[in-house]
Structure of Phenylacetic acid degradation protein paaN:
Amino acid sequence: MSRHAQQLFDRHRETLDQAVEAITSRGFWSPFPENIKKYPEEAVKGASRRFEALLGRPFPLKVPAVAGQVGGEASPYGFELGVTYDQPEQGALIAAMQAAMPAWRDAGAEARVGVCLEILARLNAMSPDIAQAVTHTSGQAPMMAFQAGGPHAQDRGLEAVTYAWQAMSRVPATARWVKPQGKHDPLVLDKRYHIVPRGISLVVACSTFPTWNTYPGLFASLATGNPVILKPHPAAILPVAMTARVAQEVLEEAGFDPCLVSLVPDTAEAPVTKQLALEPAVKLIDFTGSNAFGEWLEQNATQAQVFTEKAGINTVIIDSVEQIKPVAQNLAFSLSLYAGQMCTSPQAIYVPKEGIRTAEGRLSFDEVAGALARAVETFLSDNDRACAVLGAIQSPATAARIDACRGLGEVLLDSEPREHAQYPRARIHTPLLLKVDASRRDAFGEERFGPISFVIATDSTAHSIRLAREVIGEKGAITLGAYTTDDAVAEQFEELAMAVAAPLSLNLDGGVFVNQSAAFSDFHATGGNPAANASLCDQGFVARRFVVVQSRRHGQPD
Amino acid sequence: MSRHAQQLFDRHRETLDQAVEAITSRGFWSPFPENIKKYPEEAVKGASRRFEALLGRPFPLKVPAVAGQVGGEASPYGFELGVTYDQPEQGALIAAMQAAMPAWRDAGAEARVGVCLEILARLNAMSPDIAQAVTHTSGQAPMMAFQAGGPHAQDRGLEAVTYAWQAMSRVPATARWVKPQGKHDPLVLDKRYHIVPRGISLVVACSTFPTWNTYPGLFASLATGNPVILKPHPAAILPVAMTARVAQEVLEEAGFDPCLVSLVPDTAEAPVTKQLALEPAVKLIDFTGSNAFGEWLEQNATQAQVFTEKAGINTVIIDSVEQIKPVAQNLAFSLSLYAGQMCTSPQAIYVPKEGIRTAEGRLSFDEVAGALARAVETFLSDNDRACAVLGAIQSPATAARIDACRGLGEVLLDSEPREHAQYPRARIHTPLLLKVDASRRDAFGEERFGPISFVIATDSTAHSIRLAREVIGEKGAITLGAYTTDDAVAEQFEELAMAVAAPLSLNLDGGVFVNQSAAFSDFHATGGNPAANASLCDQGFVARRFVVVQSRRHGQPD
């Protein structure tokens, strides 16, 4: 293996060992601080200046042959980025990546993992810069863009490398097979086992979490030997391009072809994803985005292993609570965070129409719904705090959806635009909360991406569970929250979670939220319902990214 | 968990631990003796009597609702079996299996693995009986039917259980997540992780290896919590039905619904596989058989994880040898064994037209081809031995293919029918060996299932490698054999193996054959070329058969 890559592996070996322990015991762990104060002052303070220096000019990357330039990102905070990117000539890129693959394969697991860990370490150091790019493409508020776009995304990348390392480590490099033959000499075979990548890996990124949802597929594929094409969403290219640049630098320094990680940007007008997805050399596809396109990939890109993170009807069921106030406050945060644009944001909140039990007495349905609406209202009453939690709406289509959905139920809390102190043209909207009857599956049973949610009046908690089971069974869900003070009902929720393969968050209040998941401990999505066919990250996420090719020949008895 | 299942787990725990060690170190190991003399005399001697007692009558299994009876198997040794089987009513079966699933899931990994290991132990004890059923459906000769249909198939089943156990063991049942909050109390979450099966598993068996190719999927799915529908080939139902009966008995004794393993037999005239494969509740499909049907499944059954073992152009490349005789003898056995009806049997043998180097001097192409033909002829000159190696041709279509292919090249060795001492109507044919030029891709580059192979005259070993790379790249291969006395060429073969993802057997002579693979050590197929999209068995074969569903709730700081 390359001496340089070996040094990288040795440098990060302790982190890797800790990560293996973390995915095994699944307690809290991260090598990447989420507290921005832990980063050097100059890295933090200079980030916006460095970001501005990128604007209005080409962003250079290594490209085998250039077909043209694309660009056109606009910040949801109200300005054009003006960055342009080379679009590679597809045939030349595929050929170059295929040519680069054997050396990357033959370098071995330690070299590849060393390179991946160094890429992650450098990405971590530039988290403030990544945060700028994430903010002004996804619209995430700065602190969320820092955490989710920086250390939390790096955590998920490291988690993928760790699963890959563990899976590859379980295959021995060699074995001696000695089969007794009674009185005769034994049969002896010497065997070698090679980790062989599947082929070119295509990672299709989304506009709302351009790094968090991209790093698992990128690092799982790269660590197992596959060259990776990063195909960013046309509205959020820059964070992915910055990632690609770091990857190319580290690869090149370690003596590998930098095109092993290549960016293929496109535009909404001339998309290239379908063409790439059906390319015979593409053997792995990771996708985050809409159900329609995810299902198209699952059904059409049958030459590839396809890993999809789509959308579903994220669900909260309220049966009973100790006190409504901390529950409403907790849910208010979940509904407000990034204005419901997380794939984990709740949409359907089931409450029995007869109301719920609390330690302070019974609350009617309207009291529960009202408490929720008031909690959101109160939480967002300070405009600066509201802007710092809501962030901006990534896409004009999402903003338009708020108006389109207003008529779907009785308005419990109307959505309103907010003005950002620094960016007056920012697209900021508070949540819309609607009340509907359980019969209105047409309203709450379709995904309404954005700050739109429903409090649904059901006949009972049993009815809520039955409805949730049907709706999630059909449409999927990435999160399931539930509240009860009754242990038997808690077990029914646990059973529901297993039946629909959605992770359960029970009775959350305080500082943990249904829409947040922690790498190394929480599995993000299960892969077992229509919202996603893969989990970030589990063994299945890495095991099919490589095959084992063996050889055997006669050996001499010892 | 069921007390009974726990006892089963404890009983077989030591075997399981040894199996975990075996798949890790990949040396020789098996708990199931392949030597028939290790089995009780009565078990061996009574097998044919017990087999005959099964003929001409219904074979009872537990079925939720019966739609009708099917049957019609005929022994390739020339008689009708006359066994009939209940065909379940499909809707009722799916409903019953879904209803049985939660209890099987909730029993936990130890209970499920305990049941699986007990099923395998009982199957092992009845290996002589299974051998009878395998012989008189697949046509395998008795000793092969015993070994491949009995202990070797059980090895592959145990290997699948072992990978499943290892994958499930890596997910902790619970975890405590404690996130420091500076001066404040830490955030504490208590988490549970559940192994949740994907759904109903469909295992589509083949006619030539009705147990060997069925047990991996059956046991990988069952151990991970999925109910399993066994859909045998209409020509080879009995060995699968016998397996289902044992599984149902063990399940029922352990307190589980026996329909967790259900047989769905059909007929060639009214096949049900497509309908079953598209059933929304079917989430896993294992298939062994033709490329056409395997590809149909991969492209259409997109609601399921599909694992296919199809066919390819198994390849041997001869560059140079120490001595031609042991090489020719080794290949003669590989070509003769089960008359080329193994998915691992060589079809394309590349030899430079300028001939090859040997320690005894140069041999011309015709001398090499002639040595091969003579070795087969000599090996099969004793009729009893020939019948004991060739077995019978499973399908009349395969026998007809011999005649259809005779014109594809120059006949080096013609195929001839043989008469079996005990079964004069047995369908027994010796191998057809043809000589063709490398330009005849139309002849050797299509799968010719059965005792049909080609010695192909190439320009050089480099040309052989290039051709093999193209043909296997396009059509796949499950085995790759190669012969060279040159270390540099050996490394080129190693590189070829990785490039086409086919396992390499180098310079085999003596008692190890390219078409045999050993469980726990050899990966059968890689899943990386068109001949198969899965390997028996690796981590990828089990990892996507279950998902992990977690729950989390607040805990108290310690």
User: Anything to note?
Assistant: The mean pLDDT of chain A is 97. The longest strand of chain A covers residues 184-197.
